[in-house]
Amino acid sequence: MTSARTMRTTAQAAISRLVDVARRAGCTGCSLLAAGVASAALICAGIAVAGAEEPGAGLLASAQMSAFPSASAVAPVETPGTATKKPFRIYMIQWRGPTETDRGFTEYFAQEGIAAEFIVRNADRNPNAIPEFVREIKQTHPDLVYTWGGAAPPLVVGRYDAVDPERHVVDIPVVTCMVADPVELGVVPSWESSGRNVTGTSHVAPLEVQLRAMQAYGPLQHLAIIYNTTEPGPGVVLKKLRQLSGSFGFWLSAWPVPLDRDGKPRPDALPALVHKVAEAKPDFLYLGPDSFLGAHRAAVTEAALKENVPTFVSSEIYLKEAEGLAGIVSRYYNMGQFCAYKAEQILVGGKRPQDIPFQTLKRFTYMIRSDAAHEVDYYPPIALLNMAELIRQ
User: Fold this and answer.
1) How large is the average pLDDT for residues 311-319?
2) From CA 381, how far away is CA 49, in angstroms rounded?
3) Which residues contact 253 (CB under 8 A, 6 or more apart)?
4) Of 81, 222, 223, 362, which residue is most buried, by most CB within 10 angstroms?
5) What is the DSSP letter of 265?
6) Mean pLDDT to the nearest integer, 220-231
């Protein structure tokens, strides 16, 4: 009988051969599961396929990653030829501090020669901070408002069918970035138009695509999800997974993060919660778009590795900044640039936000952490390795 050590050695040798071949061919190593394509039908970057130009399909070229500079109250960006122009004033609401998305957003203006200054505010995951930001926006009248994540938009602009001009921003353009599903969240009635002064982007690949990606990695009969009950976004994802479980043929087990006496999710409870998940023996633990889990990504992914639970993730931070196993992801920096492009359409192009659709990037990246695969002793098929971007610490 072949030993586990021999199987690991063979798989690692296969990974090394594939990486060497890719490097000699000049390939950066990226992949795609196109929406609507069968689970085994992987395609390489640059190959045209049906549906690859639709939101939710394809691969975007990688961008350089580096730390976002510390946020200041007002951060002006001056570029050659723009010093004499009156800069656009953009009010940025961070949900959990600076991210690569914010950096991509601000750098876009410098790259495009658009004079802008940024008024940066951090909610630090506190919804009670948002009303004060809204009051400041109403007093200062910036040219545009940027929000990050799914928790802030309902508080900043309200549900599309329950807007209160006293509590919400209504007369200033708003670009909401990194919203998992704006329709389910109630920010917009449809992806095509908000019908009001709001547009934005989603960083999450369609769940159907993510589920096919899991099936391409290995069997999917039991999917577990850990989620935060104090924000609306994770509940939206849980609802959709329950709807899809029948057609994809898997059982879904949901594990809410315990709350403390103040009703806040407890980071210290994550290891024990992952242990309970492990006892249920899921094929994958899904870490969805959830700002709490994102903030405590190291704790949850380290616990999963310790418990030998494979994780499939929706955001690159679980892979680049923690120890998740695999995921179909959008690069945060690229998402920031995409949001800035929409802001440019409004500020420079004069388009109304309601005439700019909510969108995902047209291309996603299938990332696999080879060191995490080694830790849980769960290697993907060779065909998938040939297409995925392999990373490690």
Assistant:
1) 95
2) 22
3) 222, 223, 224, 225, 277, 280, 282
4) 223
5) B
6) 96
Residue 26 token pair: 């000049």
- Helix 100-111 and helix 332-347, axial crossing angle in degrees, nearest 10: 50
8-46 per-position pLDDT tens digit: 444 444 444 433 433 333 333 333 333 322 233 332 222
pLDDT, one tens digit per residue, over 142-199 is: 999 999 999 999 999 999 999 999 999 999 999 999 998 899 889 999 999 999 999 9
Which residues face 328 on adjacent strands? Answer: 366
State mean pLDDT over 103-124: 97
The residue type at 116: A
Hey, is 122 helix, strand or coil?
Answer: strand
CB contact at 8 A, 201 and 345: no
Residue 370's CB is within 10 A of a number of other CB atoms, namely 21
Q: With contact defined as beta carbons under 8 Å apart, do 289 and 314 qualify? A: yes
pTM: 0.71
Which two tokens mark 83?
Answer: 């010093």
